[in-house]
Predict the 3D structure of the following.
Amino acid sequence: MRHLFYPFILLATMSFAMTTLPSCSDDDINSSSPTEYVAGPQGLKIPVELVDKSKLPQWIIDFLGNWPAGEGVAESSTYVYKGKWQGKTIYLIHNSLMSSFYYNLYDSKGNRLEHGDNREIIDKSSDWKCIYIH
């Protein structure tokens, strides 16, 4: 019976410590930050900086009209990402129903960029933000 007493005390002490000590998880650190993140190209965490639909280029608004709107940040939502490549603004539009994450990659005028599977462009791009969720 004595051999069960020490593990019980150890378990009780650890349980008490876990409930009374402050947590240091990433979630707690990020909860004080107003910035949200979504998954983006190459599995990156992309900050969400939403803009009003009226601030989007018209060709993006037209493109989004072809997709049903999701609810908030739902799995079926369409995400509009904005980044920089070779000093120019580029846009990536993605919906989880699409077969490729990189297919709908466009320059600022709405011209589709096609460089193989577009991973090369993504690899050399920067400053990604999720600017709209449809």
Summary: Strands lie at 36-39, 45-48, 78-85, 88-95, 105-107, 126-133. The longest strand covers residues 78-85. The chain has four helices and six strands.
